[in-house]
Please model this.
Amino acid sequence: QVQLVESGGGLVQAGGSLRLSCAASGRTYNIYGINAMGWFRQAPGKEREFVSAIRRGGGNTNYADSVKGRFTISRDDGKNTVYLQMNSLKPEDTAVYYCAASYGTAVYTTTGGYDLWGQGTQVTVPS
Model:
């Protein structure tokens, strides 16, 4: 079993920054098999939506149009951790942010491509 644990959420004023972290823990064999890791978010009353994802090794990244130029995803495979640096935050970024991990071969942008999920961390940007 592999667990994903997010941290770094909170309340920040518009224009501010936050850095989310997601650490994978569990059996080394199972962690090593993880390829893409990603971030999704879900606002109240809305479906969970893709934010960003990155391949093992960091050579391939993908971003939702709504966060391009503001958010940066990175990962440290030695620490089994993925990060999401969020700058220039807007009220519409308010949501619960979920970390996800995939054993598949692609950098997926849909929830169906991911096998493991964290419990979520709240990000609030007041209007």
